[in-house]
Amino acid sequence: MVNSYGVISDGIVINAVLAEEGFAEEQGWVLLPEGVGPKWLYDGSTFTELHPYVPSQEVQAAARAEAYRAEADPLFFKAQRGEATEAEWLAKVEEIKARFPYPAA
Q1: Which secondary structure element, helix H or strand E, spans residue 79, and what is its range?
Q2: Residue 10's pLDDT band (boundaries 50, 70, 90)?
Q3: Can you tell me the distance from the alpha carbon of 33 to that of 99, in angstroms, rounded to the nearest whole number?
Q4: CB count, 10 Å around CB of 29?
Q5: φ, ψ of residue 40 in degrees (nearest 5)
């Protein structure tokens, strides 16, 4: 019978393949439960969904501060001298906020 098997490397499902049971066992593949696929963790008996890293608000705030300093502040001072517009500066501020969002509360 053909089932879905996981190719496991370093405890992570790196691929899901359809195969006959005997062939899958020869390859060392593991039978996948319904809904499990690549990027799931496998500890030898249990599958766990791998959740993406979500930076903390402190990490995002530090990244925003650096981006403001390097990218938005120069535009602010150019706008003060008439070399850029306030709209350009505000657009940069919004772009930085979108790039480094705070986690949902």
Answers
A1: helix 73-80
A2: very high
A3: 36
A4: 21
A5: -85, 150
